[in-house]
Amino acid sequence: MKQTTQAAAGLIEQSATPVPVAQQKPQILLIIDDPHTDWAKYFQGKKVNGEFEIRVEQAEFSELNLAAYSTAGCMVDMQVIRNGTKVVRSFKPDFVLIRQHAYSMALGEDFRSLIIGLQYGGVHSVNSLFSIYNFCSKPWVFSQLIKIVSSLGPEKFPLVEQTFFPSHKQMVSNLVSLFEWYNVLQKKLRLHKSLSCRSRVIPLHGNVHSTSFSSITFICFQAWFMIALIFPNI
Fold this sequence. Notes:
It holds the Pfam family Synapsin. It comes from Laticauda laticaudata. By secondary structure, the chain is α/β, with parallel strands linked by helices. The chain is 35% helix and 22% strand. It contains six helices and ten strands; from the N terminus they run H-E-E-E-E-E-E-E-H-E-H-H-H-E-E-H. The protein has helices at residues 2-8, 112-120, 129-134, 138-152, 168-195, 213-230, and strands spanning 27-32, 47-48, 52-59, 64-69, 73-82, 85-91, 95-98, 124-126, 201-203, 209-211. Strand 4 and strand 5 form a beta hairpin.
């Protein structure tokens, strides 16, 4: 009777039933890369902070589309071909690893809008989305290097001089005058070359021969001219 009273009062420990542990939702890692590297095998069995499993989604820039919301993050649509089968999935990435160039001058290879969408949706990335977007423009990167030269000095941070034109029109105007000068000089060199063609080979010792000075001069000039077109400040 005494034990019954104690049990009713809750003083005796009851056999506790095990509470099922809720399975943690896996963290989605979006890897933007070509299919030659299977990134899923490198993260197989890995966990974030020892508790969150990692689910890898891999695709190229051309296989992705997205919608980003200011309050709801970023939703990515992926359409890839795996072993001849078209795979279509939608997911919300927690992290993104970018292993492809986001911008190229080739037709249809400007994916900067996807970088903006990931940034808009607050997706974390390596490298940072800010740096990836900035590196899409080489002149912009070079302008940052110019700032380093201004702070450290050319002795500590030497930088090759370059010239920036806002469009091709200004560059073409400079090239036109350069080509006119080149055409006049080329005619003179051709005349000089024709006069010296008979003495193109000069014997030195025995069977050893050397190209004539005029031919070497003409070849060097052509090489210098091509360098001048690429680096106008040299």
